[in-house]
Structure formats: structure tokens, C-alpha cells
Amino acid sequence: MSTVMKSHPVTDDGLVIAGRTYRSRLLVGTGKYQDMAQTRAAVKASGAEIVTVAIRRTNIGQTPGEANLLDTLPPSEFTYLPNTAGCYSAEDAVRTCRLARELLDGHDLVKLEVLGDEKTLFPDIVQTLAAAETLIKDGFKVMVYTNDDPIIARRFEEMGCVAVMPLAAPIGSGLGIRNPYNIRTIVENAGVPILVDAGVGCASDAAIAMELGCDGVLMNTAIAGARNPVLMASAMKKAIEAGRESYLAGRFRDA
């Protein structure tokens, strides 16, 4: 008597976002580092190909005479993901994305976040939905930061967002994956990439996110706030790779 085993893929063809394939499934932020040299060293150690930048806080050309991130992390080496961190209304978020597109010569891939609370930095879903609708109509490719509600995640996908990014825990908290069931539910019902955004504190958190089936993880504070950011960046790179391989291999009792 033979037993039919569930088949799992044995190869990984990369992370595909808005039609472009990336080898790395780790996306990293560019803020909170000691200086530009440390920023570059940590990003390089992470192996990330996509770097996110807070347009309202970081100079990418809008402030002549100040250090320009584009010189440290050239767009020829990295894909920039401008984000709307610090925005508390749909109007501010849309305005910030349009500024980023102007500064980056027509770049249309953005990370949308519209915050609803200054303490927790939880998203304002009503304002985020409004901003996403406007940006998509305006030709932007929107990766959206949201809560871990599977219904809302599906709504963003149906609107046309190219990726959905549910929080694992509050931004900067380092609390890890607080609701793995919701994250797994979002993943299992998604037709676009799902990337955990916010709340990762250590390498094991990143690995867990990948083992849940997430397509990637975005982080900043977990790396930049570590005692040794460059070493932590290297650890996160390995954790993402190990978690992805574990997911593809298939847990033995689920095989």
C-alpha cells in the first residue's frame, strides 16, 4: 500500500513584485542608523535589493547641501521603495508619493502607510483605503501597510495593490509575530505577495514569518537599533533564507 505525499516545491524562483523578480526576500529601511557609512554597511550585509526610505525624513535630493541617501545607496544598485511614514491623512500620503515620484524621475513603486495613532503607529484603515484608491488611479504601484485583518488584506488586493504588508506587531516594538493565525490566513487567501511589516525584533521572528508562508519581511528598527546593526543585518539575511527553505521543504507532519 503506497502513501501519497503532498508535493512541495523544491526550488524558489524569487520574490516577484509588480512584475520584477528579486533574489532577496528581505526588505530593509534606511533610517535610524549612526551615519551613512553604517547604513550602507548594514544594507549590504542584509543582502536586500529593495530599500525603503521615509520621504518626509530622509534627503533624496529635496534638501540641497545635505547628505543625500542616493549617494550612499545608488538607485543603480538598489530598488527604492519610498514610503509615507509620518503621514496621518490620505491627502498627505498621496502628496508624499507624488513628491517621491518627482524626486526619483518617475519612480512609481511606493509603500503606503497612513497612521492613525502616534503612540502605537497602528494604521488608519479608512484613510489608507482612500489613499490607495487615489494612488492606484494615479498610476502608482502600491505596497500597502495594514493591520492583520484578512478581510482588509483581501480588499487591498482587490483594489489593485501589488503587495499587502500586514503588521506582526506595532512598529518598532520588536514583539514578534503576535497573531500567526491571522498572518497565515492572509497568506493562504492571497493572490499577491504578502510581506510582514513591523514588529520583527530578532532573527527568529523573521524565520517564523517566512515559515508561515510570507513572501518576505520588511524591517528597520530590528537592524538599525541592534547593538551591532551590521551583524544583525547578516543574521536577518540568514533567517529569511532559512525560514523560506523550511517553508518550501514542508513541516514533516504536514508533508
Structure commentary:
The protein is an alpha/beta fold and 255 residues long. The protein has 9 helices and 10 strands. It has helices at residues 36-46, 69-72, 90-103, 125-137, 150-159, 180-188, 203-211, 221-224, 229-249; strands at 15-17, 20-22, 26-29, 50-54, 79-83, 109-112, 141-146, 163-166, 195-197, 216-219. A 5-stranded parallel sheet has the order 5-4-3-10-9. A 3-stranded parallel sheet has the order 6-7-8, with helices on one face. A two-stranded antiparallel ribbon has the order 1-2. β7 (141-146), α5 (150-159) and β8 form a beta-alpha-beta unit. The chain is globular.
Which characteristics define this entry?
disordered N terminus, five-stranded parallel beta sheet, single chain, about 260 residues, three-stranded parallel beta sheet, globular, alpha/beta
Distance between the termini: 18 Å
**What is the tally of beta strands?**
10
Order of helices and strands: EEEHEHEHEHEHEHEHEHH
Adjacency order of strands in the biggest sheet: 5-4-3-10-9
Determine the number of helices (DSSP H or I, runs of at least 4 residues). Answer: 9
Helix-residue proportion: 25-40%
Q: What structural class do the secondary elements suggest?
A: alpha/beta
Query: Largest sheet, if any?
Result: 5 strands, parallel
Radius of gyration: 18 Å
Q: Uncertain segments of ≥5 residues (pLDDT<50)?
A: 1-8
Q: Strand content of the residues, in percent?
A: 15-25%
Q: Please tell me what the overall shape is.
A: globular
Mean pLDDT: 93
